[in-house]
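Field reference: sequence -> structure
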Amino acid sequence: MGDLLTERAVLGVIATLAVLGLFVMLCRARRVSTSVEDAVMDMLDRMSKASSDLRAGLTQEAADKATPHLREMLRCVAVAITDEEGTVLSWDGGANDHYEYLRDTVARAINNCHKEHVDHRKLGCELQGPCSLHSVVVVPLVVEGDVAGTLIVVSGVASKRQIRMAEETARFVSTQLELEVVQKQRQALAQAEVKALRAQISPHFVYNALNTISSLIRTDPGHARELLQEFAEFTRYSFRTDGLFTTLADELTNIHRYLTIEQARYGSRLNVRLRIAPEVLQVVLPFLVLQPLVENAVRHGLAKKPGGGMLTITAEDNGNEALISVEDDGVGMDPDRLDDIKDAHQTGAHVGIGNINDRMRTVFGAEYALVVETAPNAGTKVILKVPKFARNVLPNLNLGSQLTDEPMTNEQPAIRA
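Structure field:
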């Protein structure tokens, strides 16, 4: 999906440059009074505004916002956008009463998926005297192989340049609409990955947590009630259905609940140290990327080490990024096994680590893949870089909690599931 998004972005740039190049040629041919540089700047500004409007999808509201910019770009009489059935979503400019004469032309463009060009003489216009509509180009807007609508360009003069400009502008519009589709697909994929991750986390942890709580009901009912409340809050957060992103503060709060339950199980075998810089608590990251790493450290690193060990969670400021690490001094692994990270979420070797790696790369880019440092009997350290600001990455707002730098300790004896 990341490669697909990159390909669409490249297509968008190509379409933009094509429109821009043709626009410059058009300006020169007309010997406009302003400089070419000013015209190019104006063109870029309008293309940018039209792009952001079209990224909302092919709706009436988006079309109403985009058509004025497209008309100014093309310097034509009117620009209109229709849906896939030929219904006008927006018409900016003059000659809008002529759409009745264009219905058959629009239908042919949609059915044949090919541009249609007609001049005034063939429209059957009954207007007495000069008509502002001299030439019309109807170009289908193709999104992922299907016609999503059409772009109608009405001109006062007929020229090959105007036809070419209409074609390139339609390609530009189609590319923006495709990027909107890809964005929706990426969000759907991310939601599916979160669901898959929840399914991996829940079976073993739920069983062990409930087993731990049940063993304390008679011996320490007060502690059992506290753990049950932590478990309820943990599951409520982990299985929430809204939002693909969260703040570091909220993620750490949920990790605190998880570790409170696990410490009741492992007792003094599990020691935890938090080193959190307050200035990075509001950094936004994908939902459920840290808790699975903490769970891996407990299950695969410390639980297998005689006597247990120390889990250290660090988050520090690093300019435009936050550096976050989850480290344990457990059994570690052979570095050669790190190649299996990409398939770990499919084989079950580690809870969702491949899933997390894919999500980080998809959301932030390939340079934000996980970094893993490990060796046999030397523990494991997983490092994440998270940008402080990223486009379309917004948290599902919840109240965070205050975290301290003091180690969490629990002297309860280990309880084995």
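Note: The longest strand covers residues 146-155.
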